[in-house]
Amino acid sequence: xxxxxxxxxxxxxxxxxxxxxxxxxxxxxxxxxxxxxxxxxxxxxxxxxxxxxxxxxxxxxxxxxxxxxxxxxxxxxxxxxxxxxxxxxxxxxxxxxxxxxxxxxxxxxxxxxxxxxxxxxxxxxxxxxxxxxxxxxxxxxxxxxxxxxxxxxxxxxxxxxxxxxxxxxxxxxxxxxxxxxxxxxxxxxxxxxxxxxxxxxxxxxxxxxxxxxxxxxxxxxxxxxxxxxxxxxxxxxxxxxxxxxxxxxxxxxxxxxxxxxxxxxxxxxxxxxxxxxxxxxxxxxxxxxxxxxxxxxxxxxxxxxxxxxxxxxxxxxxxxxxxxxxxxxxxxxxxx
Length: 336
Description:
This protein is of the alpha/beta class. Helices cover 35% and strands 24% of the residues. It is built from 14 helices and twelve strands. Helix 5 crosses helix 6, helix 6 packs across helix 8 and helix 8 runs parallel beside helix 9. The two termini are 20 Å apart.
């Protein structure tokens, strides 16, 4: 949980005690376990961790896009502060009302635009559809706005590209189209789920710069999901580090990257050659735990060089390490 002072800053989105599980034939996978996060107006929160840490499932739970899977939202709240200042729990909304929020107030950019865009419709039509549904615009008006959005996201010759099909565009251009769709209704919150993973390094930098510019221009809140700490440094005001479904550390980006408090955060930074390791990478030993049977106590203890018997005895709580920093480790004072 964030401090009381930060809570009083009226976050755009607040997640409290979220638990999302997948009920499979092999057992229950607790993909998101007691996750609490907050992001404020005009702020970017990065959610970082290895694949399988629960980052994307957290975003999909916020969007309520897990309905046709084996997922169940076991507990928690996802509180959105609307344009009128009223707060609503997205998890408690009937699907009909949630459909009005999704795309209008909260929008998402997915990792692979080719699988997210409909291959049989021109991209302009897919942007215009969002505008017509949520804003009641005419077809002609929606098309004009689609062209304007394509121009805003940096696509050249938007009057022509509006009639292009997804397969006629490059990966970077398709991702720009996805961003245009997400921004079509000027959302309060944008969730970017590893939006640069499928792109080459040069295009990655362009997409990150575009997202940062648009976020600043529109003063919207953004949750940026990634495993790339370099991107976190470039784009995020706050960072939350996840491991095996739990938040293990959260705080201002500059402070977390300069002085990590959790052994896992420190280990992640040591995997980056231009980071704390000063050109010498140190891989994290072992592998992520079996999600069907996570270890007792601290979930990181089998891979942690600072583990002791007390780390196995009980699940450590998130501890307030500073006014705006929390950490899930009983030995964080010794590790820091």
